[in-house]
Write a structure and sequence with these properties.
405 residues, two-stranded antiparallel ribbon, globular, disordered N terminus, disordered C terminus, transferase, CARME, carnosine N-methyltransferase, EC 2.1.1.22
Length: 405
């Protein structure tokens, strides 16, 4: 199975004379470099552990002899994770020209000792946790809380059409597709699932999983290695997780008619295009709508891409991702933060009819063995596209709203 991927857009800011293609290549080069230098950055962290341990007196270290052994065990875990990322990068470079990832020339100029930014380091490590959520047995319980409910609701909403609508395969859009498990599960139901993803970290990882993982347990990773706090034991922190729990191709064998594609890029830019109008029978959003700079735009684009009578199934909280961006970014980013009742009000005004709604508990990338367990009280609703109360152009066109000042 080979995911169909188009060019992506990034948040990176560069000199005005740089072309869009140059910006894309610079961003991708930086991100691949962050994957490549994972071991260097992780070794620096373990060295810090050792430095602090050495500050303890021999008497104190003797009380907990495991302190002296942990760095050595951690280094073995780092090498396993680094080996996984090396495979991911090699696959990206091998697939590159056909996937819009032709960056080999730029990477030749990158020094392996050049430090990745703290933000890039964190995002590389975040990939490990997302792999657990989407593609491990350990993540099955968390997937059931969200993906499972969405798939059941999708079957309820569209199942009577048996994957077809007048001979046309039913198309389901999955914005914020991440590493692709929800897309694969939906495709296995007989639908055409189209995933959309903005992050190169997720795009490269999903391409590796979807195109290069052929059997269960093909890789071993250590996803919780970098979380020192709230651990029950070193063995919990340094435990291995096998991925995938099932090969994507094996999951898709459940359906002879299901299919899958991936489209890279900003959700509003890609699907706000007039050509995308009324091209999907359903949109499923899972922990996604709060990634919006302007949630009105998201609602408008979801309505735009749905066929009349199409279903929007949403599950997630309202942890608006850009709400505190002004505290860590040099430029101010737009962020509209509506409470849930006002999101529903806006959806109704923009042409949605609420069919079902409930609040359900769900976690996201939670370590099941951690002393810290965070669960969201998520809204889980199904809405149907209906004619808008008043004829008007799309919200973006009508009001000229931009996500950035």
């Amino acid at each position: 199975m080979h995911a169909d991927t188009t060019a992506a857009h990034t948040h990176d800011v560069a000199a005005p004379e740089a072309s869009e293609e140059d910006l894309e290549q610079q961003a991708l080069s930086r991100i691949i470099h962050a994957f490549q230098t994972y071991a260097v950055e992780a070794e620096g962290e373990v060295a810090r552990w050792e430095k602090n341990i050495r500050k303890l007196s021999p008497e104190l270290r003797a009380m907990v002899p495991e302190l002296n052994n942990k760095p050595g065990h951690a280094r073995k875990c780092i090498m396993e994770n680094a080996s996984f990322f090396d495979g991911l990068v090699a696959a990206a470079l091998a697939d590159g020209p056909g996937q819009g990832l032709d960056v080999i020339g730029r990477l030749d100029n990158q020094s392996q000792t050049h430090r990745a930014s703290p933000n890039d380091v964190d995002k590389v490590r975040y990939v490990l946790k997302n792999l657990v959520r989407d593609w491990s047995e350990e993540g099955a319980a968390e997937r059931a809380q969200s993906y499972g409910k969405i798939c059941t609701e999708l079957r309820t909403s569209l199942g009577n059409l048996d994957g077809k609508d007048g001979g046309e395969q039913l198309r389901v859009l999955v914005p914020g597709a991440g590493i692709g498990r929800l897309c694969v599960d939906i495709a296995s139901m007989g639908f055409h699932a189209q995933g959309n993803e903005f992050s190169y970290y997720m795009l490269l990882s999903s391409a590796y999983v979807l195109n290069h993982m052929e059997k269960a347990g093909q890789h071993t990773i250590y996803p919780w290695l970098h979380s020192n706090c709230n651990q029950m034991s070193d063995s919990d922190q340094l435990r291995q997780v096998h991925i995938p729990d099932r090969a994507p191709a094996d999951i898709l064998k459940a359906s002879s008619s299901g299919s899958l594609s991936m489209v890279a890029g900003d959700f509003v830019e890609v699907y706000g295009d007039p050509k995308a109008r009324e091209t999907f029978h359903a949109v499923t959003t899972c922990f996604f709508i709060d990634t919006a700079h302007n949630i009105f735009e998201y609602l408008d684009v979801i309505w735009h891409v749905l066929k009349m009578g199409g279903h929007w199934i949403n599950l997630g909280p309202l942890l608006y991702h850009w709400a505190d961006a002004h505290t860590y970014l040099p430029t101010e980013e737009m962020s509209i933060e509506l409470p849930l009742d006002q999101v529903e009000k806006a959806a109704k005004a923009l042409g949605f009819h609420l069919v079902r709604k409930q609040m359900v508990p769900a976690t996201f990338n939670v370590n099941p063995r951690s002393m810290l367990q965070t669960s969201y009280n998520c809204v889980f609703w199904t809405m149907v596209k209906v004619p808008r109360p008043h004829k008007k152009p799309t919200f973006q066109a009508a009001y000229g709203i931009n996500r950035r000042p």
